[in-house]
Amino acid sequence: MALPNAYAQYNNNKVMTASPAELTLMLYEGAIKFCNVAEKAIEENDVQKAHTNIIKAQRIIDYLRQTLDMKYPVAQDFENIYSYLGTRLVQANLKKDIDIVKEVNEHLHSVRDTWKEVMKINSGKGSEDE
C-alpha cells in the first residue's frame, strides 16, 4: 500500500512545483491520455468508459479555455482551437465516433508538440540575455 501513496505524493509534488508552462503541458498530456483511453474503449464497445474519458478530455479543454488571458492576441487563436476541439469532443461522445476522437487526439498532439517547442525556446532565452 505504500507504493500507491508514494506515487500519489510524487504526482502531487510534481504539480505543486511546476511552472505555469509545465502545468499547461501536463494538461495537454492528460487530454491526450484520456483520448487514447476513449479510443480504446470505443474499439472495445465500452460505452461508459469511452464517455467518462471523453468528458475528462472535455473538462481539460474547457479549463484551458477558461484560463486564457485574452489581452494577448494569440489567445484568440487558442480560443478558436479549444472551441473547435470541445465541439468535436461533444460530437464524438454523442456518436461514440472513434474517428472524431482520433482527429481531436491528433490536434492535441500538434498543440502539445508546439507548446513543447515554445517552452524550449523560452527556456533558452534567459541564457542568451545574460
Oligomerization:
single chain
Could you name the CATH topology?
Four Helix Bundle (Hemerythrin (Met), subunit A)
Strand content: under 5%
Mean pLDDT across every amino acid position: 91
What is the number of helical segments per DSSP (H or I, 4+ residues)?
5
Q: Name the helix and strand elements from N-terminus to C-terminus, one letter apiece.
A: HHHHH
Number of domains: 1
CATH superfamily: Flagellar protein FliS
Shape: globular
Distance linking N and C termini? 48 Å
Q: Enumerate the spans where pLDDT stays under 50 for 5 or more consecutive residues.
A: none
- The percentage helix is over 70%
Strand element count: 0
CATH level 1 name:
Mainly Alpha
Architecture in CATH? Answer: Up-down Bundle
Major sheet: size, sense and barrel closure? none
Briefly summarize what is shown:
This protein is an all-alpha fold and 130 residues long.
Textual characterization of the structure:
The chain is mainly α. The chain has a single domain (20-122), classed as Four Helix Bundle (Hemerythrin (Met), subunit A), CATH 1.20.120. The protein has helices at residues 2-16, 20-43, 47-66, 74-95, 98-129. The N and C termini lie far apart (48 Å).
Map the helices and strands.
Blueprint (H helix, E strand, L loop, with lengths): L1 H15 L3 H24 L3 H20 L7 H22 L2 H32 L1
Helix pairs in contact: 2-3, 2-5, 3-4, 4-5
Keywords:
5 helices, globular, Four Helix Bundle (Hemerythrin (Met), subunit A), single chain, 130 residues, mainly alpha, 87% helix
